[in-house]
Amino acid sequence: MISFLKDGTQLLLEYQAESTAWVDRKLKESKKVTILKIFTFLSEDLLPKQTSDKLLDLHHFVETSKDDVHGEMSNESAYIDDSDDTKTFILGYLEGTYFKIRKDILGLKYDLSLHKEIPLDEKTFMTHRSISVFRKIDELIDEPIIISGDANGAIPLDEFKYLLKSFPNSTELDRYADARISRVLQDYFTTMSDGQRTLATYLSKKSRPKPVSPTQFLEQYELPKYRYLRDELTSNLNNWSSYIEKDWQNLMAEFLLLLFPKYIALLKNLYIKDFYTNAKIPTPRYIDFVLVDAKGSVDIIEIKQPFNERILSHGKYRDNYNPHKELSGSIMQVEKYLFHLNKWGHVGEQDILKKRHHELPPNFKINITNPKGIVILGRDDDFSNDQQWFDFEVIRRKYANIIDILTYDDLLRRLNNIIAMLDRTSPASGSHGAQP
Fold first, then answer.
1. Does residue 125 surpass a pLDDT of 90?
2. Least confident of 96-100, 132-136, 397-401, 424-428
3. Alpha carbon of 45 to those of 96, 139, 363: distances in Å?
4. In the Cβ-directed half-sphere of 389, how many Cα atoms lie within 13 Å?
5. Dihedral in degrees, nearest 10, Cα atoms 326, 328, 334, 339
């Protein structure tokens, strides 16, 4: 058996067996010895017997914890046997707040760093069938392994606990082996047991630790971002009248790629050709803002100031609230842009790419394939009855195939809903998706 002792600046490994004569023989023959197929020590790593005895007099127990790295409970001190069948090796040295273990001891590409406060036992280093925990990790990465503490790139202790629990036990390894053999032999033998079914049944019954989301940590960055957008939009809406239209459009444009994350680029003042106003000479047109998504498809966005007038008429006409002239005029303008853009086709794609390639990723392609328009204008916070909401939704759906109509209050609701969901699942909130 092995146990670990932290002695000041040294991390020691105690190896106990009925006989340790083979250790002395291996060190004499090859100047190194491998313990439990995991730890390979050199002759100089072995503490002299007298030094080991002094340490044992000072330290009569192995460091244990009620909440150790494996989550197990222990109320007893494990006493070190000071018989002649105990060998003490220097496993590592304290550097700052970490015990450093040489890479050659564990067969790693880099030295291993373990925080000095981590409780250690055999299961920290090896799992079923003498599988080296750190060697398995080392096979999958190409950088030093650091466990716990504040060092850059350190694996948090809770994550390391989860990792240890995730290693398959002996029964699972047998089932995996049976399943793989079954897949090879099932075409040739019909009387063999179904190893794959046995594995599936076993895994379905096995209690597994709750998986940790690999993207959960990103929420701590997303939540402040959307709160900032919401607060900035609210503040700007409260002072919109102090901006001329062009300044307002440029201000809103700064947030577009964050408000509509499917798009990767915003092209301002995009030149297109109108072949219908003048049949002989194409008339130049300029679209204020064109959005480009990750596949190169383009859409048009029209930004209007949140004017005081309603986006629907004040009164009814034949029991309907009709669109305000600003709304209908914006829709008509975007429809014309879409018409000219579609007619320009492949030639337009090449022209846009030629003139605006520096604003796009390298080796990128532009696609004018049924582009859609987005209109952002007005407010709907003054809607006072269900009929207004209903009529506005009818107007929206009428143009849904080519135009998406959004009010500034739509944007605020969208941001508030995103923030509400992030608040529920954010680690900082402590809820992790639980119902409030």
1. yes
2. 424-428
3. 21, 25, 57
4. 8
5. -150
Gap between the Cα atoms of 421 and 96, Å rounded = 41
Give the strand pairing for 373-376 and 298-303.
parallel
Averaged pLDDT for residues 426-433: 50
Q: Determine whether 77 is exposed, middle or buried from the number of CB atoms within 10 Å of its CB (0-12, 13-18, 19+).
A: exposed
